[in-house]
TrEMBL record:
Residues 36-186 form the Pseudouridine synthase II N-terminal domain. Keywords: Isomerase, tRNA processing. Responsible for synthesis of pseudouridine from uracil-55 in the psi GC loop of transfer RNAs. The lineage of its organism: Bacteria, Bacillati, Actinomycetota, Actinomycetes, Streptosporangiales. It comes from Streptosporangium carneum. This is tRNA pseudouridine synthase B.
């Protein structure tokens, strides 16, 4: 007669900040960390392409309910744009579709092109992207040989800095640092910079340095997390990412039951609500004179 297997104690709810390795998909990382953390309840706050490395924010247990809100925060990247070659994916993962000498492109030309792609801009996502077109991912249609027509979308590139320009024959490699809104494709910036300079361009390197308040200084590699799975407690995670509101005992009871509080004009976006003892109660959003619950975390 087999002995019943002991029920595994679920891990604490919180965030895991991963330094994603190259060639891993975001789904690969989630699958690995489900085994490490000992729970199926793991998700990510925004994908990174397999080629890219850097900060990938994972939510565990109840913290998976934070991910949609964290995905909308500002992000930072370091990357390298190669001028003189275009690819069908706008990055080094794809096939070269056109080449042109970039030898005549000066550093001033590069900086002017970068300046034109800074601020509030309209950006057409790469054809090989996860955006849905008529219910199907664009990359599936593109890989099936279909020409995918994607509409330009507004994004904000708050910083787009050139850190180094290197030349190799007819090619020019431009190292850049970018701070941008959610939904911005860095490989589309590479494509559009190359197009504006008349020589084509694609992304050859990408490292995400920050997602909201979480940066590389708090990120850990898969190997480090496998040895010691550090989970950032939910209360600490919310306090770092969103404005904080502390409430009284009476207000805490109201919030726990999904009740609404009067607005304190703390700004747009999610606000973390904490009880008198520092317990995270909920995420709320101000709407006029009242707050609306986005997620309640207490029983």
């Amino acid at each position: 007669m087999s002995t019943p297997r002991a029920k595994r104690t679920p891990p604490p709810s919180g965030l895991i900040i991963v330094d994603k390795p190259a060639e891993w998909t975001s789904h690969d990382v989630v699958g690995k960390m489900r085994g490490v953390a000992g729970t199926r309840k793991v998700g990510h706050a925004g994908t990174l392409d397999p080629m890219a490395t850097g900060v990938l924010v994972l939510g565990v247990e109840k913290a998976t309910r934070l991910l949609g809100h964290l995905a909308l925060t500002e992000k930072g990247y370091d990357g390298t744009i190669r001028l003189g070659q275009s690819t069908n994916t706008d990055d080094a993962e794809g096939e070269i579709t056109a080449s042109a000498s970039a030898a005549g492109v000066g550093e001033d030309d590069v900086r002017k092109g970068v300046a034109a792609l800074t601020g509030r801009i309209m950006q057409i996502p790469p054809q090989v992207s996860a955006i849905k077109v008529n219910g199907e991912r664009a990359y599936k249609r593109a890989r099936a040989g279909e020409e995918v027509a994607l509409e330009a979308r507004p994004v904000t590139v708050s910083a787009f800095e050139v850190t180094e320009v290197r030349r190799e024959g007819d090619l020019v490699d431009v190292d850049v640092s970018v701070t941008c809104s959610s939904g911005t494709y860095i490989r589309a910036l590479a494509r559009d910079l190359g197009a504006a300079l008349g020589v084509g361009g694609h992304l050859t390197f990408l490292r995400r340095t920050r997602v909201g308040p979480y940066d590389l200084s708090t990120a850990r590699t898969i190997e480090q997390l496998s040895a010691d799975c550090v989970i950032l407690p939910m209360a600490e995670a919310v306090a770092a990412a969103f404005p904080r509101r502390d409430v009284t005992e009476e207000e805490a009871v109201l919030v726990a039951h999904g009740g609404r509080l009067p607005s304190l004009r703390l700004g747009k976006g999610p606000i973390g609500v904490f009880g008198p003892d520092g317990t995270l109660l909920a995420l709320v959003e101000e709407q006029g004179r009242i707050t609306k619950s986005l997620a309640v975390f207490v029983p």
